[in-house]
Protein backbone atom coordinates (compact mmCIF):
# COMPACT_ATOMS: atom_id res chain seq x y z
CA UNK A 1 0.00 0.00 0.00
CA UNK A 2 1.41 3.43 -0.95
CA UNK A 3 1.18 6.62 1.13
CA UNK A 4 -1.89 7.89 -0.71
CA UNK A 5 -3.83 4.65 -0.19
CA UNK A 6 -2.82 4.38 3.46
CA UNK A 7 -3.82 7.98 4.15
CA UNK A 8 -7.10 7.69 2.24
CA UNK A 9 -8.07 4.48 4.05
CA UNK A 10 -7.03 5.96 7.39
CA UNK A 11 -9.23 9.03 6.86
CA UNK A 12 -12.20 6.77 6.15
CA UNK A 13 -11.54 4.86 9.40
CA UNK A 14 -11.31 8.13 11.33
CA UNK A 15 -14.52 9.39 9.74
CA UNK A 16 -12.82 12.49 8.32
CA UNK A 17 -14.16 13.32 4.85
CA UNK A 18 -11.43 15.62 3.52
CA UNK A 19 -11.33 17.18 0.05
CA UNK A 20 -8.80 16.28 -2.66
CA UNK A 21 -7.01 19.56 -1.94
CA UNK A 22 -6.74 18.78 1.79
CA UNK A 23 -5.46 15.30 1.02
CA UNK A 24 -2.85 16.76 -1.35
CA UNK A 25 -1.70 19.21 1.36
CA UNK A 26 -1.32 16.40 3.89
CA UNK A 27 0.81 14.47 1.39
CA UNK A 28 2.88 17.58 0.60
CA UNK A 29 3.41 18.12 4.34
CA UNK A 30 4.58 14.51 4.68
CA UNK A 31 7.10 15.00 1.87
CA UNK A 32 8.41 18.22 3.47
CA UNK A 33 8.72 16.56 6.86
CA UNK A 34 10.67 13.63 5.42
CA UNK A 35 12.96 15.95 3.41
CA UNK A 36 13.78 18.39 6.23
CA UNK A 37 14.09 15.60 8.80
CA UNK A 38 17.29 14.44 7.14
CA UNK A 39 19.14 17.54 8.40
CA UNK A 40 16.88 19.14 11.06
CA UNK A 41 16.06 16.10 13.22
CA UNK A 42 12.36 16.97 13.44
CA UNK A 43 11.21 13.49 14.38
CA UNK A 44 12.76 10.20 15.49
CA UNK A 45 10.62 8.41 12.88
CA UNK A 46 12.93 8.31 9.87
CA UNK A 47 11.02 6.15 7.41
CA UNK A 48 8.52 8.13 5.38
CA UNK A 49 6.35 5.01 5.14
CA UNK A 50 5.86 5.03 8.94
CA UNK A 51 5.11 8.75 9.09
CA UNK A 52 1.59 8.33 7.67
CA UNK A 53 0.33 6.48 10.74
CA UNK A 54 2.78 7.81 13.36
CA UNK A 55 2.37 11.47 12.44
CA UNK A 56 -0.47 12.27 10.03
CA UNK A 57 -3.18 9.88 11.20
CA UNK A 58 -2.09 10.10 14.84
CA UNK A 59 -2.39 13.91 14.71
CA UNK A 60 -5.72 13.76 12.89
CA UNK A 61 -7.34 11.75 15.71
CA UNK A 62 -7.51 15.13 17.49
CA UNK A 63 -9.73 16.76 14.85
CA UNK A 64 -13.13 15.23 15.80
CA UNK A 65 -12.61 16.63 19.32
CA UNK A 66 -12.14 20.23 18.14
CA UNK A 67 -15.82 20.98 17.52
CA UNK A 68 -16.61 24.56 18.50
CA UNK A 69 -12.93 25.48 18.91
CA UNK A 70 -11.85 28.75 17.27
CA UNK A 71 -8.25 29.26 18.45
CA UNK A 72 -5.86 26.34 19.00
CA UNK A 73 -2.35 26.49 20.47
CA UNK A 74 0.03 23.61 19.71
CA UNK A 75 2.74 23.74 22.41
CA UNK A 76 6.16 22.28 21.63
CA UNK A 77 4.98 21.77 18.07
CA UNK A 78 8.34 20.41 16.85
CA UNK A 79 7.74 19.19 13.32
CA UNK A 80 4.17 20.55 13.35
CA UNK A 81 2.22 17.73 14.99
CA UNK A 82 -0.67 17.85 15.66
CA UNK A 83 -1.09 21.51 14.64
CA UNK A 84 -0.43 21.35 10.90
CA UNK A 85 -2.61 18.30 10.12
CA UNK A 86 -5.36 19.84 12.29
CA UNK A 87 -5.06 23.17 10.43
CA UNK A 88 -5.31 21.40 7.07
CA UNK A 89 -8.37 19.43 8.16
CA UNK A 90 -10.01 22.51 9.76
CA UNK A 91 -9.22 25.59 7.62
CA UNK A 92 -11.67 27.61 9.76
CA UNK A 93 -9.47 27.01 12.82
CA UNK A 94 -6.83 29.57 13.84
CA UNK A 95 -3.73 27.61 14.85
CA UNK A 96 -0.56 28.85 16.54
CA UNK A 97 2.48 26.56 16.45
CA UNK A 98 4.76 27.37 19.39
CA UNK A 99 8.29 26.04 19.79
CA UNK A 100 11.49 27.44 21.34
CA UNK A 101 13.76 25.64 18.87
CA UNK A 102 14.75 27.99 16.01
CA UNK A 103 15.56 25.18 13.57
CA UNK A 104 12.14 23.63 14.08
CA UNK A 105 10.28 26.91 13.69
CA UNK A 106 12.30 27.64 10.53
CA UNK A 107 10.89 24.41 9.13
CA UNK A 108 7.39 25.23 10.35
CA UNK A 109 7.41 28.65 8.68
CA UNK A 110 8.58 27.14 5.42
CA UNK A 111 5.91 24.44 5.61
CA UNK A 112 3.18 27.04 6.27
CA UNK A 113 4.32 29.03 3.20
CA UNK A 114 4.63 26.03 0.88
CA UNK A 115 1.33 24.50 2.01
CA UNK A 116 -0.49 27.85 1.80
CA UNK A 117 -1.87 27.67 5.33
CA UNK A 118 -3.34 31.14 5.93
CA UNK A 119 -4.85 29.97 9.24
CA UNK A 120 -1.48 29.10 10.86
CA UNK A 121 0.96 31.32 12.75
CA UNK A 122 4.42 30.15 13.90
CA UNK A 123 5.95 31.55 17.09
CA UNK A 124 9.51 31.00 18.32
CA UNK A 125 9.42 31.41 22.09
CA UNK A 126 9.57 29.58 25.38
CA UNK A 127 6.03 28.74 26.40
CA UNK A 128 6.27 30.42 29.80
CA UNK A 129 7.43 33.67 28.14
CA UNK A 130 4.82 33.72 25.37
CA UNK A 131 2.27 36.53 25.78
CA UNK A 132 -0.24 36.58 22.89
CA UNK A 133 -2.76 39.38 22.41
CA UNK A 134 -5.60 36.87 22.75
CA UNK A 135 -5.73 33.67 24.78
CA UNK A 136 -6.73 30.27 23.39
CA UNK A 137 -9.91 28.28 23.85
CA UNK A 138 -7.95 25.06 23.35
CA UNK A 139 -4.32 24.14 24.06
CA UNK A 140 -2.90 20.87 22.78
CA UNK A 141 0.40 19.04 22.82
CA UNK A 142 1.78 15.73 21.70
CA UNK A 143 4.39 14.55 24.23
CA UNK A 144 5.48 18.05 25.31
CA UNK A 145 5.72 17.24 29.02
CA UNK A 146 3.90 15.57 31.88
CA UNK A 147 0.37 16.89 32.41
CA UNK A 148 1.04 18.89 35.60
CA UNK A 149 4.00 20.65 33.99
CA UNK A 150 2.00 21.25 30.82
CA UNK A 151 -0.73 23.02 32.81
CA UNK A 152 1.75 24.93 34.98
CA UNK A 153 3.63 26.37 32.00
CA UNK A 154 0.59 27.26 29.90
CA UNK A 155 -2.24 28.23 32.24
CA UNK A 156 -1.71 31.93 31.43
CA UNK A 157 -2.50 31.12 27.79
CA UNK A 158 -5.86 29.40 28.34
CA UNK A 159 -8.98 31.52 27.86
CA UNK A 160 -11.74 31.38 30.51
CA UNK A 161 -13.85 28.31 29.86
CA UNK A 162 -11.12 26.81 27.64
CA UNK A 163 -9.81 23.26 27.72
CA UNK A 164 -6.63 21.30 27.28
CA UNK A 165 -6.48 18.35 24.89
CA UNK A 166 -3.26 16.50 25.68
CA UNK A 167 -2.26 13.64 23.39
CA UNK A 168 -0.74 10.74 25.32
CA UNK A 169 0.28 7.12 24.82
CA UNK A 170 -0.78 4.76 27.62
CA UNK A 171 -3.43 5.88 30.11
CA UNK A 172 -1.58 8.47 32.25
CA UNK A 173 -2.89 7.49 35.72
CA UNK A 174 0.09 8.89 37.65
CA UNK A 175 0.22 12.14 35.68
CA UNK A 176 -3.49 12.78 36.27
CA UNK A 177 -3.04 12.21 40.00
CA UNK A 178 -0.39 14.96 40.06
CA UNK A 179 -2.51 17.65 38.37
CA UNK A 180 -2.74 20.96 40.28
CA UNK A 181 -5.79 21.16 42.54
CA UNK A 182 -7.52 23.80 40.43
CA UNK A 183 -7.53 21.60 37.29
CA UNK A 184 -9.07 18.22 36.62
CA UNK A 185 -9.09 15.59 33.91
CA UNK A 186 -12.67 15.83 32.67
CA UNK A 187 -12.31 12.76 30.46
CA UNK A 188 -9.67 10.44 29.06
CA UNK A 189 -10.58 9.10 25.65
CA UNK A 190 -8.92 6.08 24.02
CA UNK A 191 -7.89 6.83 20.45
CA UNK A 192 -7.54 4.29 17.67
CA UNK A 193 -4.93 5.32 15.11
CA UNK A 194 -5.28 3.43 11.80
CA UNK A 195 -2.14 1.42 11.06
CA UNK A 196 -0.64 1.98 14.51
CA UNK A 197 -0.53 -0.89 16.99
CA UNK A 198 0.00 1.22 20.10
CA UNK A 199 -2.07 2.77 22.87
CA UNK A 200 -3.15 6.36 22.44
CA UNK A 201 -5.28 8.52 24.73
CA UNK A 202 -6.62 12.06 24.63
CA UNK A 203 -6.82 13.80 28.00
CA UNK A 204 -9.31 16.65 28.24
CA UNK A 205 -8.46 18.94 31.18
CA UNK A 206 -10.46 21.91 32.46
CA UNK A 207 -10.30 24.31 35.40
CA UNK A 208 -12.21 23.23 38.49
UniProtKB/TrEMBL annotation:
Domain of life per record: Bacteria
Reaction equation(s) it catalyzes: guanosine(527) in 16S rRNA + S-adenosyl-L-methionine = N(7)-methylguanosine(527) in 16S rRNA + S-adenosyl-L-homocysteine
Binding site for S-adenosyl-L-methionine: 76, 81, 127-128, 142
Keywords associated with the record: Cytoplasm, Methyltransferase, rRNA processing, S-adenosyl-L-methionine, Transferase
Subcellular location as annotated: Cytoplasm
GO molecular function (one): rRNA (guanine-N7-)-methyltransferase activity
Any one cellular-component term (Gene Ontology): cytosol
Stored HAMAP family: 16SrRNA_methyltr_G
Similarity comment: Belongs to the methyltransferase superfamily. RNA methyltransferase RsmG family.
NCBIfam families: rsmG_gidB
Name of the protein: Ribosomal RNA small subunit methyltransferase G
Species this chain originates from: Gulbenkiania indica
